[in-house]
Amino acid sequence: MEVSFSQEIESLRLGQGQTFHGEGILAITKALLQSGVAYVGGYQGAPVSHLLDVMVQAEPYMNELGVHVEACSNEASAAAMLGASIHYPLRGAVTWKSIVGTNVAADALSNLSSPGVKGGALIVVGEDYGEGASVIQERTHAYALKSGMCLLDPRPDLPVMVHLVEQGFRLSEASNMPCILELRIRACHVRGSFETKDNVAPPISTRTLMAQPAGFDYMKLAHPPVTFRHEKLKGEERIPAARRYITDNGLNELMPGHLEDTGIIVQGGLYNALIRALQQLGLANAFGESDIPLLVLNVTWPLVPEQVADFCRDKRGVLVVEEGQPEYIEQEIATHLRRQGIATPLHGKDMLMMAGEYSVEVLAGGLASFATRYLSDSAAQKGATATLAWLAENRERREAATRQLPAPLPARPPSFCVGCPER
């Protein structure tokens, strides 16, 4: 039985000054239309399925705007669609579940990233990592590093997520690099609201054709010898341009705190869990105001060396909150600090577990270790002690519940998601 998204489709029509209420992934869908996207494609998979499902069912409205929508046979064909943005000033977006979907699309992404893009190219991936995951536990970050794609990890707040979609297209065009927007399960399903803007019909579309197609450009091919030039462009022009745009437009967020001799650098997508863990220690309030200064990385690659250095300089200790392994961000930060002669002690995987989802309990344990070492305030020390006791009580309750069972619960057999095209 097909699910109807008629209510969600109506929310895509909201205009300037109106208010959108709903889930994160639907807010992302609306943001694409506000950004003047010309074509959208993808392959369904949790937790980003709604993006393509809604647009496919909204075909009449997409035709009004001139937006081409295509449900692709796999992730590789979806990624290949973005080739339109190599030669033309067309904004394109594709979506799939990661990491398995990104593995399938890897060749097409390499051939996209090497010549670079003229129109903004945005890849919305469901970062299916953690306890609710249904795929291999790996990180999309590796693909951003190896191929030279900006990686956005927006703070799970609808206005921020929408803003990062709009900025993602501009960042892609400013740097000529494709951008990946990674959304964890909780970010896709977080609910909230934001003030909408009018949708923008793409200047070049199925309704407004180009008078003259682009001519052949040998340098946009993806084979030697031109690929050697592409590799130099990544380091000499594209990454510096991306860093300038990130800094000039404040894409990463610096949140002050009165405990200025310490700091936490956190992936944007983990911000909500971090604040809840800080609340457990008495180091943050319900409004998200932290006693410890925070550098929230809504763009996790490329990092801006000067921004990282300025945040870490003169601090007694900094904690990097980075989910998954290996610790790409922590290693890069350590390199930037070493090159600038900054000796601030840097912590991360030594206080937090290497692999697995960073739930509030996991973060609280790491924060308690950090607070015990670096916060001399009596209230902070008391909060750390109370948190460790709370964690011990949680473990005891789980063990007590397990002892009540006559036998271990049966393992859940693996299966395809409901609605998966491969079922």
Task: Record keyword descriptors for this entry.
14 strands, single chain, globular
State mean pLDDT (0 to 100 scale).
Answer: 93
Which secondary-structure class do the elements indicate? alpha/beta
Total count of strands:
14
Largest sheet: 7 strands, mixed
Shape: globular
Approximate helicity band:
40-55%
What is the C-alpha radius of gyration, as a whole number of Å? 22 Å
Please count the helical segments.
17
Largest beta sheet: what is the strand line-up?
3-2-4-5-7-6-12
Low-confidence sequence ranges: none
Strand content: 15-25%
Assembly of the depicted chains = single chain
Distance between the termini: 14 Å
Structural overview:
- Helix 2 packs across helix 3 (49-57) and helix 5 packs parallel to helix 8.
- By secondary structure, this protein is of the alpha/beta class.
- 44% of the residues are buried.
- The strands form 3 sheets. Strands 3-2-4-5-7-6-12 form a 7-stranded mixed sheet, sandwiched between helices. A 5-stranded mixed sheet has the order 9-11-10-13-14, sandwiched between helices. Strands 1-8 form a two-stranded antiparallel ribbon.
- Helix content is 43%, strand content 15%.
- It has helices at 6-11, 24-34, 49-57, 59-65, 75-81, 84-87, 100-104, 106-113, 141-147, 158-175, 185-189, 226-248, 271-280, 305-312, 328-339, 360-374, 378-403, and strands spanning 19-23, 39-42, 68-71, 92-98, 121-127, 150-152, 179-184, 191-195, 253-255, 262-267, 294-297, 299-301, 317-321, 346-347.
